[in-house]
Structures are given as structure tokens and as C-alpha cells.
UniProtKB/TrEMBL annotation:
Keyword Plastid: no
Enzyme Commission number(s): 2.4.1.1
Pfam families the UniProt entry points to: Phosphorylase
UniProt protein name: Alpha-1,4 glucan phosphorylase
Taxonomic lineage from the root: Bacteria, Pseudomonadati, Pseudomonadota, Gammaproteobacteria, Alteromonadales
Gene name, Swiss-Prot/TrEMBL: glgP
Species annotation: Glaciecola punicea ACAM 611
Amino acid sequence: SQSENSYSTKLDKKAFKASVISHLHSTLGTDENKADNHAWFKATSAAIQELVLNRLRTTQKTHYMNDTRAVHYFSAEFLMGRLLSNNMHNFGLFETADAALKELGVDISDVLEEEPDMALGNGGLGRLAACFIDSLATMELPAIGYGIHYENGLFRQEIKKGAQIERPDSWRDYGNPWEICRPESTQEVPLYGYVETKYGSNGNIQKEWHPGSIVKGVPWDIPVVGYGGNTVNVLRLWQSQSSSHFNWDVFNAGGYVDAQRENIQAETISKVLYPNDETEAGKELRLIQQYFFSACSLKDIIRRYKRAHGDDWTRFSEQVVIQLNDTHPAIAIPELMRILVDRAELDWDTAWAISSKTFAYTNHTLLPEALERWPVRMLEKILPRHLEIIYEINHRFMQELEKKWPGDNVMKAKLSIIEESDEKMVRMGNLSVIGSFKVNGVAQIHSKLVKENLFPEFDQLYPNKLTNVTNGVTPRRWLKACNPLLSALITKKIGDQWPVNLTQLDKLSVFADDKTFQNQFMKVKQKNKEALAKEIKAITGIAVDTKAIFDVQIKRLHEYKRQHLNLLHIMALYKRLLKDPSYDMHSRVFIFGAKAAPGYTLAKTIIYAINKVADKINNDKRINNKIKVIFLPNYRVSLAEKMIPAADVSQQISTAGKEASGTGNMKLALNGAVTIGTLDGANIEIAEEVGAENIFIFGKTVDEVAAINKAGYKPYDYYYNNSEIKALLDWLDTDYFTPEQPGALSSLKRSMLEGGDPYLVLADFESYSKANEALDKAYKDKDRWAKMAILNTAKMGKFTSDRSVQEYVDRIWKLDTCKV
Ligand code: 26W
């Protein structure tokens, strides 16, 4: 196509074929006759990687020669998904590769299916980081992502008899074609030990940390290909390794096993991603992970800076900006202070002036249980010098507060980095705000709540520090690559610039009433639904009617996201149909994808409940296939890419004030799904863009939620006053859905009554039910629905991650593009 040619990196079908075959021979040691899909995947990837590495070298040379200021995106998670299709699209080579493989007798989609997801993240925060580095490369901005090279990413989910089982995700078992090990850039990271006080060269008191152990960090680079293929940045992920990997004395004394034990401990650091999303568990290994990758990354940055600027620290914050993706890497703040004060021997004020101009922090959640706090005792043991530095930062900060608000100890207690609870804690959020020059939330409403509820005093103290940058998603992966049919239709209508200039989608608006375009648009949706239906059949064995409404809720399982509100409503529809077989509703397939944190019992019960209700409904002949409930196991990026293009309806139903932004909401609307949602996170901005007629908004607002909680929320009132709600909750308490396990769903009922229904499921139920009726009615009007779907796609221009990144660049990072 035109769009591909205009960006294409001169490699035609013939040359591509030759390259794949040559890799089949020389890289994989096989041939065209013996190769299976996996070998074709490896060979195709190797052919692409050759181009990637060329552009990577050119990019790095260019950045080096220009001594560019760069952003360093520190994130404990990068949820990259698969890279082959994305890299081919970004090089403009997808269609060439497709044709070349076809001539070799190979189906490209079979090849793409061979790639394991890089699931080095939990959910929204990790996927946002992946979208941002895609945008940074596309926009030709000097940037590097820093994170952890987890040996095991987020667990693989199996569903056995309705319940979630976790299995390890070993994504590198057969080798990863993209990553490059850079042993020459290995770093060493100290841990444990004690701090010695002594006198430095200038006669001042100096601190020296004598670590109790040292681990090595070995970097693996993943190239990040920008759209157009010009800039290729890197994602640098650290793998931990034992530093003295063989202790000969112990070994020779017969202590082979003891000598190995220490190795194993060091290597445990990057073994596994913590699967908790929004719950801080306070685990020592997690703190070590955070410090490990922050320290390796800082050393890497400083090594590069010194190569250009020697020991002159004055330009450090001009060259380096570090974005902290939530507080997970916040320990980098005292680490930089340690390097500047203890190692470079700068005085505190000079060091602080540099450090506090280097860091910026993004907050991704308001949930109290997700706000990181580390026991002082734990820090003291693992990072004794950092604890001292944190105390010093806090001490000076308290003096600043005393000047501003003399004698106000309440204020001091609130803003202190140290929480004076029974067990003293270090508040990483407070440290991040104090140590950063900018702090942002991720959607307008979220940033407003960050200012008003989470950090109001900080906002008073530092009037322009807190700001908003609304999230975005990359349209290259989340429309162009995942939805080729819709992409082709859009390009035919408005040209090929939309992937890099998403607001051009608005040009589709004038066709929203055009019958021909409506037909074309809905035909694409229909084809995508048929493809997903096939997938559903293959995975679950269940046949679904592709004329039914495809209603999708895909996200981590969490009470605040309220999958159980969706489930209660499904049960309500089922009950209405049983009671009155002529109950008027368009047939609907409810599709879920969700992983629960392994220790989150109620979340697991909700998964179990969805599967058990699904079993019952899917096999109940009485309701004539009006409802199907599908739980697709192991929700992940590559599955999302199949589900999103096929969705008619996008469920975004969190309790108002709880979902910081959401990004799935953007991806689904971009692909023509209509949202049913609360006024929460970015839903509010989506509603603003698409207009009230093109979205189904329901439920209590942020202010109403606050008022209800203040007055004392009584879920029993809803239970006793709404007979449908009562019947539904009581139903959960029978053995109707779990005959083999009576009472298995009772705890779900209890959570909404005795448990206090903390996320206001019952308070929002009726409003949700009404919104669903309106949605059902709208769907039955084919023209109206087509118009809504088109306008959802047309009005998503704002939500490209290019726009988010541009806002960071203009208002926080102050970067210049660097054409490669
Ligand atoms: C320490 C445990 C833990 C782990 C992960 C706490 C918190 C997190 C993340 C901050 C959770 C997360 O992914 N938050 C999501 O960030 C997205 C990107 O900004 C938002 O779109 C989602 O609304 C928010 O839930």
C-alpha cells in the first residue's frame, strides 16, 4: 500500500525472501523443507532484526554526536507484548513480508503466533510505558527505557473447573530474537552492610558505605523501532547476576553447594515480576528489585554523561531527565544524592540542586493500598546509607516547612517522608514529590484528585509542581497493526497520515451518516467479530452468534473495576429471560479477560463466579442463546489485539474516582466500540470528545461517591429496597451456579453487604441496568449504532500516546527532536 511504501526501508519481496532463507540456513541451521512455524518465526525475526540493528547503530551514533538531552524512562514494568508484527509495520515491511512468506508457502499469521508475549508488566502502568517508548521513537526523540529483565513475566493463567491457576511464564525458553546482551556495560550494585563516618579530602565529614554484598547487573537491550523506521531507541533491561560467581576457596574445601547458594540469591533478584497490581506487599525482594534496576540505570547514565562531560556535574540536569513511572524507582532519588555527595564529594545543596532538577514523577493510582511505604527497618538493613540520606532530605524539608508554616506540626506530620506509625515507614510518594521538579497525574479528574485529596498540602507548598498529562495509546499497535481491515478502510477514506497524526481521524466524522461508509465500517466490524468467534471456539469450544452484541470487559481483576457489577447485570438479564421468555433484548455475548493477583482471594472468587455463571447460562436451552458469557483465559497484550477490533461495547465501569485513567477504554473506542462507563478517569475525556449521544454514561459521580461515603453508605438499603438486587445477591448464596460446591459464591454476596460494598456496586446497579437498556435499544437501530461506532473512532485523535509524549516534552522533559 501507499502508506507502507512511503516509509519503506528499501527491501523488496525478493530480497526479503532471500534474507529469511539465508537466516533459516545460517542462523537456525535448518532449511525450507524442515522448517516449522517456529523456525520461520525465528528466521523472519532475524531478517527484520538485521534492519533494526542498522538503524539502532545509526541512531546511537547520531545521538552521541549531537550530545542530545534525553529522557530516561524508569519503570519496573514494560508490557511490550509481541514485537515482530510491530517492527514490520513500523518499517513499512508488513505487506512485503506477508507476500514473501506466502511465496515460501508460509502463512504470516501462523508465524506471528509463534512469538511469546513479552509480559514484563501487570497492566496499565506497564503497557503505558510500552506505548510511550513507541511514541518517543516515532517522534524521533532521544530516549531510553530502563527496567528489569525478568526471567519470568506475569504468570500464565489457566482456568481449571472455573478457577484461576497460575503457571510460570518463561518467555525466553526458546530464545528471544530481539534482545542483545551487552556484558561490556555490566554494572555492580551494593547491598546491605554498614555506613562508616570519616573525614573527607576537604576536612568535612564523609560517609562511606561498606556493602555486605554486591550483585552484578547485566544489560539486555531491546530495540524500539519508531514508525517509519528512522529512529531506533533502546529499552535497557537489567538482569541480576552473582558478582563473584565462583568462590574457589569454598569450592575446594568441599563447599560447592554453599558457594552456589549466594549465586542463586543474587540471581533471584530478576527472576520474577511481582504479580500485584495496586497492592503493596512490602516484600524485601521487591525493594531490592527496585534499587537494583534504579542503581544500574543511574550508573549507566552517569557513565555516558562522564564520557562527554568528565567530572563537570554542572550540566547533568541539562542533559538528563529521569521520569519515574510511579514510585517504584523512587529510590533513585537518594541513590543519585549518594553518588553526588559521597562519591563526587559535592556539598549537599549543590547535589540537591542537581538531583531535584533531574527527576519527575508520574502518579498512577490513588488507592491507599497501592501507595508504597517501606519499613524503616527494612531500608536500614538493605540500604543503610540511603536511609540516612532520606532522613537528611526529610530534615531539611521539615526546616523548609517550619519557615513556611511556623509551628504547624500537623502539616509536618502529613508531609513528612517518615510516617511515625508503630512501625516507622518511609512514604515513597512524599519522597517522590519532594525530590522531583514535576509531578503528574494521568487524566484530568485523576490529577485534580491528586491535587485535592492525595497531595493538597504539597500543592500549596509548590504551586506549579503538580500537573496533568492525560494518558494515550499508540495507534500503530492498537489500530494499524491489530485491525488491518479497519486501517485499510480508514486509509482509503482519509489517507495514510493518521498513524502519526491521529487527529486526522476526525475527517471520518463527515461520513458518520453516509450509508455506504456505515456499511463498510460495520462490515469490517462483522469480519473482526467472526475472527474472534473462531478464536473463542478454538479456545473454549463455545460457538457464539456473531450477530450478537460483542460486549467486552478486559482489564486486571479488581473490585474497583467492578467486574462483579457486570456479572450481577448479566445474572439480572438471565433472570428476566427466565421469568419472561419474550423479554426484549438483542442477543449479547459478554466477553471477559482478566487476571487476579494470586493472593487476592475475592478477585479469584469473582473469576470463579464469572465462569460458573457462564457454565449455567451457556448451557441453559431456555434462553435461546440470547446470552453467552465467555471468559478467555490468560488475557495478555496479544489476546487484547484480537479482542479489541471485534468489540461492539467497551465496559469501563469503575467506581468514580478509582480508575486513574484507563487506557483500554481508549483502545476499544479507537476500534469503534461504544463505551458504557462511569464518569471516571479518561472516560470523562472520552465522553467530552465523542459527545454525550455517543457514549452510555451511568452511575454516581466523584462528588456523589464522596457524599455517599461521608453520609455513611448502607448497601443493605439497596438490598432491601430493590427486589431485583436482593434476588440476585440471594441467588449467589444458593447452589444454583455451583451445585458441586454449595456456598462457593457466598463470599461475593457478603462483600457487598456485611463487607460494606466498598466500591458501591449496589448503589450503581440500577443506573447501570438503565444504561444497558439504552444501549440495547441503540444497537437495535443499525444506522444509529453505525454512526456511534464511526464517531467513536473518529473522535479518538486526542488519545494517541504521541500527544501525551508531546505534552511531557513541552512541559516537563524539554527535549528536542533529533532526526536520524
Ligand atoms: C506496589 C504494587 C503496585 C503495582 C502496580 C501498585 C500500583 C501499581 C500500578 C500503579 C497500577 C497501575 O497499573 N495503575 C494504572 O496505571 C494506568 C496508566 O497510567 C492507568 O491507566 C490505570 O487507570 C491505573 O490503574
